[in-house]
Specification:
It is a multi-pass membrane protein. By secondary structure, this protein is mostly helical. 74% of the residues lie in helices and 3% in strands. The protein is globular and about 65 Å long.
């Protein structure tokens, strides 16, 4: 039930949350949304699952770029599984309640996977920089041991940062309204329901977002600035087109993911609202994970060939030589 006062002394402690999400939509609209999101979720799971399978089993994709791509797809699978199945259930049921512990767990998993993906995208940009600007030393710099360490460090940083964000998000008691104006427990919205010094908590979230989002973005921008300078200086016109195509795929993913994450965690809460939060939340929780395989795979002839071999489709396999 809604609590009518924000005074901790006069309010009952919140023990559960209600995800409003699309609760106010008509039954026909919810049915349409359920069908749409179920299709998108199934498509994202299938495509990311296929990429995980072929990058980890196809010997022709034995390179750092595909090693990172496989782990990116695994992170995307974890990301959408953390939020979308719950939303699908709430679209067809009247009970939109989640326990306090479930909300905490979901927020931690979103923190973990989201931060790990931010770091991994930066490492993928660095991998492209080394491949294009230092091709003779590429195998030595990006050895298998180095790649494993980079992936592990992204997971470790995500786990540690997730613990920090979880602590500052739930350090204050919750004694206000327990209705979350979104389809999952998103940190800034949940924090706004707590008592205590919210400005200090949001400042910590903002500072953490600078480290987690802007620091990797600086590495990404620096890497691609040097790649661009190297391409314009010494590559042929055909080589430029191929390199630009590869880099454009990665940059497209970065723009989608970082734009939506920055809006959610670096904008003042006064600029937010249900109509603004939900579209951006959908962008980085389901649209980006679904687009990643399309952006990376269907613009890459080696991936097309590997997908054709995995599915036994000759036409796709022949695309490798087109």
């Amino acid at each position: 039930m809604r609590s009518q006062t924000a005074d901790p002394k006069n309010s009952s402690t919140v023990t559960e949350f209600i995800l409003v999400g699309f609760e106010q939509s008509s039954p026909s609209t919810r049915a349409l949304l359920f069908t749409l999101f179920l299709a998108l979720y199934s498509l994202a799971m299938a495509m990311n699952g296929l990429i995980i399978f072929i990058t980890w089993t196809d010997p022709r994709l034995n390179s750092p770029m595909y090693f990172f791509l496989g782990h990116l797809s695994f992170l995307d699978v974890c990301f959408i599984t953390t939020t979308i199945p719950q939303m699908l259930v709430h679209l067809v049921t009247k009970n939109h309640t989640v326990s306090f512990v479930s909300c905490m767990t979901q927020m931690y998993l979103v923190f973990l996977v989201g931060v790990a993906e931010c770091i991994l995208l930066a490492f993928m940009a660095y991998d492209r920089y080394v491949a294009i600007c230092h091709p003779l030393n590429y195998a030595q710099i990006m050895s298998q041991k180095v790649c494993v360490r980079l992936v592990c460090s992204s997971w470790i940083f995500g786990m540690v940062n997730g613990i920090f964000l979880e602590y500052i998000s739930f350090r204050n008691p919750f004694c206000k309204d327990n209705h979350i104006e979104n389809f999952f427990c998103e940190a800034p919205i949940v924090i706004a329901l707590s008592c205590g010094d919210l400005k200090f908590t949001m400042k910590l979230i903002f500072v953490d977002a600078i480290v987690v989002l802007l620091s990797p973005m600086v590495l990404i921008i620096t890497s691609y600035a040097r790649i661009l300078a190297s391409i314009l200086r010494r590559a042929s016109s055909s080589g430029r087109g191929k390199t630009f195509s590869t880099c454009a795929s990665h940059l497209t993913v970065v723009v989608f993911f970082y734009t939506s994450a920055m809006f959610s965690y670096m904008n003042p809460r006064s600029t937010h609202g249900p109509d603004k939060d939900k579209p951006f939340s959908l962008l980085y929780t389901i649209i980006t994970p679904m687009c990643n395989p399309v952006i990376y795979s269907f613009r890459n002839k080696e991936m097309k060939g590997a997908m054709g071999r995995a599915l036994g489709i000759g036409s796709l396999a022949q695309a490798e030589s087109v």
